[in-house]
Amino acid sequence: MTTTRNLKPRSAPVTVKRIPTTSNKPSVGMIGLGIMGSAMAENLVKAGFPVHGYDTNKAQTRRLQKAGGTGHANIAGVAQECEYFVLSLPSVSALNAVAGELAADGRRGSVVAEVSTLPIEAKESARVTLAAAGMILLDCPLSGTGAQAKNRDLAVYASGDAKSIQRFVPIFEGFARARYDVGSFGKGMQMKLVANLLVAIHNVSTAEALLMGTRMGLDAATMVRVLADGAGGSRMFQVRGPMMADRSWDEAMMKVEVWQKDMRLIGDTLRDLAVPAPLFSATLPIYHAAMALGHAQNDTAAVYDVLEQWAAPLAKKTSGTKAKARKKR
pTM, whole model, 2 decimals? Predict the structure, then answer.
């Protein structure tokens, strides 16, 4: 059962008109079927929700159909079937386009949960667009990776209209383990930026620690098992440590290329607020190097490879210095 942590009292759930379906659960429209969106859609299907989806990548739409959902050729088709929507989108331009189409084709009174990591200003603009059409947009970014999404191990930072959040609770429970009601519209994204700052640092610190250990002769898999259970462990160590240990960053759950967007959002916020961030700043060149070394489509666990490649010349130099010292003796 999903754990809910209310940071302040919320209104009681309201009774809403459901769209007739073959189940007793409302139809849910999933717009955006990438790594996160497809995992959430499949979990909603497993939870008994009729899911209608759309993605510009037709292969992802076919994947939803194989999982038991209904794929559509356009957003209008999804809008005709649903009054609850989840948007999992890659960019501001995508959000603007989807908001416009939903406003044109959606039903008044529909509730839309925007779960992407995008600028608050862009989400506010989409909220205004949908409000003009009688629809309600919630700002509900997620904490978790693609792997966690598959396992329904996500946390929702829900913000916006309290009654609409309550209407959405059963759907949140279909794809997430926890929901936090964090306040007015936009507070969800603010919370997500704080969370992602920690992720950026912990991901790199995991790579640093494992590389140091392997250079001392420790087994990477053993370190992951032992350290994850100790004071030095973190959620990122638990999630990305195994990927670093078995070098499986080609199985991307958060692509380095996509992560660049999140890093920019954090950096812009830090500058706007004049907050010193030496640890976050130290991670920037490592993620940039991951792009330069061809890891754009790989998981961010590939920062391990960056550090390993940087360390190789140093290790060779150190080895050569030790050899010369032995000869002098």
Answer: 0.86
